[in-house]
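Structure tokens please, single chain.
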Amino acid sequence: MEIIGGSCRLGLWFVQVWWNDKTVHQVRFARTGIPGRVPEMIRQYCAGYRVNLSQLNTPAIQEDTVYSRIYLAVQQVPYGSTSTYGEIATRAGTSPRVVGQAMARNPVPLVIPCHRIVAADGIGGFSSPVEIKEALLAMEKKGLRKAEK
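Here you go.
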């Protein structure tokens, strides 16, 4: 099946997505958009709606590797919540440094919500500009507050 690409807005950024059917192959953040469709769940998420993107498939979790175990643990962190690199390392049976490496190489941010993984003493890094991580966390907290009303 053919992989298609498209983008949607996320504040001042665009979320570029390469996908087919319900399988997302790559997600990245960019200053420019690309024409094409994006899975509706990702579009809804970027519009600020509370959406569970772990329902989307990705090759990143289909093999039994250390990274796939880390990615599966990261997918369990609920919308609007955070977990530390150390907590994910414990769940995946590895070290916090390896978790950081997996987050930096995450091919599908948002589907594997690496923005929810923070350092024990601060926000931690992000494969894209850290401002995007901060914006995503703020958007999710705002979405939780809206849902509580």
